Amino acid sequence: MAIRTNRTLLTWQEAAQRLAVSERRISALCAAGLLESFSAGNGVLVTEDSVRRQARYQGAGGRPYSPDMAFAALYVLSGLEAPWLGRQQRYRLKGYLERMDVENLIRLVRRRATMIEYWCRDSNLGMVSDSIRISAATGSLTGSFQLAASDRVEGYAAADALDDIVRQCRLKQGVTPIRVRLHAADDLPAGEGPMPLGVCAVDLAESDDPRERRAGRVALQRLIDEYHHKEHQH
Q: Taking CA 178 as the corner, what is the angle to CA 210 and CA 109, rounded to the nearest 5 degrees?
């Protein structure tokens, strides 16, 4: 099967060499959604972009949070409740957040969803925005991070709704330019409208764009500082 893309694709062997891990580990990272991959004939190719993002976290200690805990951390930092957590989990999360810093937060919440990039017609971008909970600096969110308006749409969708969105909006994977970044979550917290500020900020902090990355980190630091200040007041 031909793959039409201008992006650099790597074999599992090449990706394993870049990350200094086994090909079996590359397979596990693809299955977990931490590496973006495409089927190609009898094999699988991995995008160089996703390998580069993964390389940032190589060697960091501590296991990433489960999706439930990852979303909870970002919701609580945004001043919201996380009702899906039990009492013991909330107590544990409070302890985590009391000693949290930006770099650790970005690393620990990276398993919250599987991110997939798509090409999309300009005329369908509005339909995509209406079908998801927008995040990062999409649309009106640009003002929250003092970024220039972007023509890219980014946001979250329930994993079981992803196929319908891709079909209805005619999204194409493996084709450039990238116009849509969807984060598919098995257990997306209930809600409407844009994702909480903490989620938007960490999406930006993971961007390959230096300006977005800096804006996301600045916003996350502010949220962490505000959380610590409130906890000390209590």
A: 55
Sign of the dihedral defined by the CA atoms of residues 18, 22, 27, 33, in that order: negative
- Alpha-carbon distances of 143 from 44, 64, 139, 146, rounded to whole Å: 39, 30, 9, 5
Question: Checking DSSP bridges between strand 153-158 and strand 180-185, what pairing results, if any?
Answer: parallel
Element (H, E) at 183: strand 180-185
Calpha distance 30→38 (Å, rounded): 10
- Other Cβ atoms within 10 Å of 51 Cβ, number: 23
Q: Are 48 and 12 a contacting pair, CB within 8 Å?
A: no
Report the distance separating Cα 207 and Cα 136, nearest Å: 9
> Omega of the bond prior to 189 within 30 degrees of 0, cis?
no
pTM exceeds 0.90: no
Would you write out the chain's pLDDT as a tens digit for each of its 234 residues? Answer: 444 555 688 888 898 888 878 888 888 888 877 788 888 777 888 888 888 877 776 655 568 899 999 999 999 999 999 999 999 999 999 999 998 999 999 999 999 999 999 999 999 999 999 999 999 999 989 999 999 888 899 999 999 999 999 999 999 988 889 999 999 999 899 999 999 999 999 999 999 899 999 999 999 999 999 999 888 776
How many CB atoms are closer than 10 A to CB 173?
A: 16
